[in-house]
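Translate structure to sequence.
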């Protein structure tokens, strides 16, 4: 059974930081492209950041310079370091593992709320 388990979400003030973790099991983690998506109420789910098996990264323009995605293959874990958080970053964040654009697995999601 494949499992992706996110953790690290919570409530943070604008300008603050959080680090999200996604621990994977049931896959050969090192060959998968890993991604973080988010979905806010009333909005489409969007890709925030991704990292390939060769550690090539991609970010949505709105988080460039603030968020960093990185992976630890020895721990089967991918992380999203989020700095300088804004209220517009408030969303449920989901971990994704895939070998193509049209296949893969999803985590259960973790809530991130940025509010004063």
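Result:
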């Amino acid at each position: 059974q494949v499992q992706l388990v996110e953790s690290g979400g919570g409530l943070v003030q604008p300008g603050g930081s959080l680090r999200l973790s996604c621990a994977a099991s049931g896959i050969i983690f090192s060959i998968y492209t890993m991604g973080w998506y988010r979905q806010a109420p009333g909005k489409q789910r969007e890709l925030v950041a991704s990292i390939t098996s060769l550690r090539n990264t991609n970010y949505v323009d709105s988080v460039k310079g603030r968020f960093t995605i990185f992976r630890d293959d020895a721990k089967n874990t991918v992380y999203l370091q989020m700095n300088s958080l804004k209220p517009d970053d408030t969303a449920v964040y989901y971990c994704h593992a895939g070998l193509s654009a049209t296949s893969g697995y999803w985590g259960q999601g973790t809530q991130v709320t940025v509010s004063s």
